[in-house]
Write a structure and sequence with these properties.
Blueprint (H helix, E strand, L loop, with lengths): L1 H15 L24 E2 L5 H16 L3 E8 L1 H4 L2 H11 L10 E3 L11 E6 L3 E4 L13 E5 L5 E6 L13 E10 L7 E4 L2 E4 L1 E3 L4 E10 L1 E5 L7 E9 L4 E8 L5 H5 L4 H8 L3 E5 L12 H18 L4 E5 L5 E5 L2 E4 L2 H15 L3 E3 L1 H4 L5 H7 L12 H23 L5
Parallel strand pairs: 2-15, 2-16, 16-17, 17-20
Antiparallel strand pairs: 1-20, 3-14, 4-7, 5-6, 6-14, 7-13, 8-12, 8-14, 9-10, 9-13, 11-12, 18-19
Helix pairs in contact: 1-2, 4-11, 6-7, 7-8
């Protein structure tokens, strides 16, 4: 395999640009208050796992072999979906013909849904998320919807921006509905081309699996009008093809310990089995007055232990918190200096777990820079979140940082 890659990679390097140095990166606008010149992945420890991830990417890009799973996990920054969608689109544009399973999604109801898919539903549903007190079993998606309404149903329609005119790219023919009912009669069924398809229950996965007769970009699920209560904790959409599946998992308000409190976290992690995890959890942890660096690191240690049980060689990227402010009262804000403590914690975690650190806190301009981003209309007035333009810019920056390291990795193949 390595011999073949040595022949194929220089050819694709030429296709990526006249400089033949590696993948074409995103054009980034200039802002005087940022440190975009410091946009890089930093390895406080060992980078072996990232090199192994890059070798998997080599095999996919240059031979069309393999399936890569990337898990991007966080709070509202990820639930919004723009940041993760930007990364997904760029990665799928690396080479012609790459496909993508949509991966783990959640049927958000009565809250915002990532822009890459839409949800509609009938009947009465109760929504639960891991960021607040809850009494239901949750999994990796960090949320659940529960119904006892015999008219209840939900639909998912993928609205992916297809990077190339190749079909299928984001379509799926395999569906797993994660969840549980209070009796054996209330089970999910999928409607497909006027057929009602039953699922096969997998007790280990806690899922009902549906193999569709053809590819589709939409899904309609109901519960056969049976009486009882059913809780949905996630939906997994796949197409069984080689490619990159980018799972964007975010819950508004989620902290690291919010995910640790999800009983089926490890079980669902086995379904995703990530090759690369991008950690974007921390902005909500640091918002608390009681925030301590030690607890923050201990919580992350526990989360990483769970991931390593499932994917021992998984590569990891820690994204430091963005600069943010605390709201004191109407139109009165105070810069949150906990961002500096979180920044230190991420570097210490990176060294301990041989992970990369993407120091967005520094790249965006450091302490108080959020006000500048707001002034440029790339951050929102709450001084915590970004506009869609801002989130897309963040995705461009992280992609460029990842591709810089990948280009360095590719140089070993040059004659």
């Amino acid at each position: 395999m390595r011999r073949h890659l040595g022949i194929l990679i220089p050819l694709l390097l030429l296709a990526w640009g006249s400089s033949a140095q590696g993948p074409v990166k995103c054009q980034i606008p200039e802002y005087s208050f940022t440190h975009f010149d410091r946009n890089q992945l930093i390895y406080p420890g060992d980078s072996t796992n990232m090199e192994q991830f890059f070798e998997k990417l080599d095999a996919l890009l240059f031979t069309g072999q393999g399936k890569i799973n990337i898990l991007h996990i966080g709070g509202s920054h990820v639930q919004a979906g723009v940041f993760s969608q930007q990364m997904r689109d760029h990665l799928l544009n690396l080479s012609p013909g790459i496909t993508s399973g949509r991966g783990l999604v959640f049927p958000f109801m009565k809250t915002n849904t990532p822009a890459s898919y839409s949800i509609s539903y009938t009947g009465e549903w109760n929504y639960c998320r891991n960021a607040v007190a809850f009494d239901t079993r949750l999994g990796l998606a960090g949320a659940s919807v529960t119904t006892s309404d015999t008219t209840a149903s939900f639909s998912i329609v993928t609205r992916e921006k297809k990077p190339r005119d190749i079909t299928p790219v984001f379509d799926f023919n395999l569906v797993k509905v994660l969840g549980y009912g209070d009796n054996s009669k209330i089970v999910p069924v999928v409607h497909f081309n006027n057929e009602v398809l039953p699922g096969v229950y997998d007790e280990h996965e806690g899922s009902f699996t549906f193999q569709l007769p053809d590819y589709t970009d939409s899904l309609y699920v109901d519960f056969n009008h049976a009486e009882g209560t059913f809780t949905v904790t996630g939906v997994y959409l796949d197409n069984g093809m080689p490619g990159i599946t980018y799972h964007g998992i975010g819950v508004n308000g989620a902290r690291v310990d919010s995910y640790l409190s999800c009983e089926d976290l490890r079980r669902d992690m086995e379904l995703v089995k990530p090759d690369l995890v991008i950690f974007g959890i921390g902005i909500n942890d640091a918002a608390a007055d009681s925030f301590t660096k030690d607890k923050f690191k201990r919580d992350y240690d526990q989360l990483i232990d769970i991931i390593h049980e499932v994917s021992p060689d998984c590569a990891m990227i820690f994204v430091t918190n963005n600069d943010s402010y605390k709201r004191l009262k109407k139109n009165k804000y105070q810069v949150n200096t906990n961002g500096l403590l979180a920044q230190e914690a991420f570097f210490e975690l990176g060294k301990k777990h041989n992970a990369a650190v993407w120091d967005f806190f520094d790249i965006m301009g450091g302490l108080t820079s959020m006000q500048n981003w707001q002034d440029e209309n790339i951050a929102q007035k709450d001084k915590v979140h970004f506009t869609n333009t801002g989130y897309a810019l963040i995705g461009d920056l992280l992609f460029n940082a990842l591709m810089d390291k990948y280009t360095t990795h590719l140089q070993k193949y040059k004659p």
